[in-house]
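Troubleshooting entry. Yesterday's outputs looked truncated, so today I'm pasting the complete records for two proteins to confirm everything comes through intact. If either block looks cut off, that's the bug. Protein one:
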Amino acid sequence: MMILSKLNSIAARIAIAITLAIILGLLMAVGLNLGIAHYGYGRSRADDGAPSRSHLLISRSGFGIINPRRNPQMLSGKIALIIRSVAFSPRSERQRIVAATAEPEIQVALDAPAPAEAATGMDDNLDRLRQLVQMQLETLSPPILVSARRSSVDSHKRADLGPSNSTSEGQAVVEAALPDGGRITFTIPDYPVGPGNGLLLSLISIVLVSGLVSIWTARRLAAPIREFAGAAERLGVDLTAPALAVRGPQELRATIQAVNRMQSRLQRFLEDRTQMLAAISHDLRAPLARLRLRAELAADGEQQRKMFDDLEAMNAMIESTLAFARDDARQEPRRLVDLGVLVGDVCEDAGDVGNKVSYADRRGIDVSCRPTLVRRAVANLIDNAVKYGGGARVEIRSDTDRAVIIVDDDGPGIPPEEHERVFAPFYRREPARDPAKAGVGLGLSIARTVAREHGGDVTLRNRSSGGLSAIIELPVARRVAP
């Protein structure tokens, strides 16, 4: 189990992907080289008509695909061996030695006449073969000089075949001047002009396979991470969201489990806080009832009136606290609603009771929310605008991902230094402490709490022409194209 857990880590997955990419790339390179050897080089024939075959060599230290007639190391060894044997043998024995040691794929001529036409230019592949032969003859004394050229006749033949064939293979001629003045000439038909495409194809295949495996691995690793990011974003605005599914690499699983535990603790904390506030508010009802009975027995009418006013204020605070702590609206399931219709209904209800409320109707803005909570937040802002600003003007604006509800009034506004302080529960500025304007200072707190639960916020801004703007921002639901 411990080994399987380690293999499921991100580091192990990346290591496995890299190893798999290299193995597949090498296998693809071997397959390409075998195909080229069989269908390309394999079609070339030696003098006896037998095809020149490539061979797959495998050893403990590695493997490779070798065509004996095109491998510079093997060719140089054969040519150097024949030159050594012929150079120190009597002239009468040289032809027999050549016949015994020469390969069918290489034409060897003794004392051949010099070519009548000039040789074509040297290429890198042929020059490398010449240098390899020369290196193996350096210990001889007197030294033997080796030269190499392309057959001019063969060059014309290849030119007639077109440019594509004239640059791939050609007849190579390697010559050596013997110490006694003789010459030995090696003619290698169809010797590659360049180093060949085997290495290039191998590199391309490894890069291609590595890229495909890397993309596949990255997508496999990124998929659970993207899901986790989306689920964590939902959790940030909805603590009642279902727990995240535990899947993916080991590190991601541990992170998801930690987030699930955190969500469970937050849910228990909110439940405990709600129950505590509800219990405190409920327990306060009994002493308030006793105080009301005693206030009714007071002989001083003025003192009795003040006591009743205080009791009403305390009762209003308890009712507001219960409404704030009550979680029935928070248990309401989220659903997609037209924000313009919801705000229009709130404005219509406020106007029906005689409040001065205007609304710039706007439809077609969908948000995923708990409608009851959003209605309460908007109603609180409109109620504040009516109480302290004489009326409310409501409009909705939106962009690609946010919807903004703006509630304007013509009141005195709020000093900028108090824009955040007024969101504290039960905080009321002195001008607002008017018995005629009932309130306990929870309206803005509830509105901001609701907005933040939905992934938005509530802010205040003084208007340049006078008055205050209360702004609710909510995320817009993304529409899925059919």
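Protein two, checking that the full record survives here as well:
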Amino acid sequence: MIKATPMKRSHALVKFSKDHHFALLLIWKIRQGLRFNVEIDRITKYLIFFFENYLKEHFTEEEELLFVHLKADSMSRKVVEQDHQALKEMAEQIKSHPDTTVINEFVNTLEKHIRFEERELFNELQTLLNEAELNVIDEKMKTSHPVDREDNWKDPFWVKN
């Protein structure tokens, strides 16, 4: 059996991958909070803060800088756009009616979405885009993200007391 060598991540996609890592930490924190039976309102406040301040912008950047390079009827584009829409709807639902079931659905969908983008979509884009197109994306991301994101949330509910 031949082992597939992972594709090296393009410089243009590194900031997206860093954002994904940041979002995977959100998922871990929420799961820890749920595991520790933290009050749902504390978890909800953090999830909505994170969504409003990080994920919405990240989704917009992906849609405007990456997805536009895929054909409108491509399966990958349909999957990621449907995921974004579903996550936005779940965030609104959580915001108005905090619910453990929907929070679990949100983090599971977000994790699946990130894994798909990292394992499938980014490889597809790296094959599809030429160096000039990748450079344009890279420059736009450097402008919008001059520094890495930082989480300054003051209520670390995910740390067991």
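Both blocks look complete. Sanity check on protein two: The mean pLDDT is 93.
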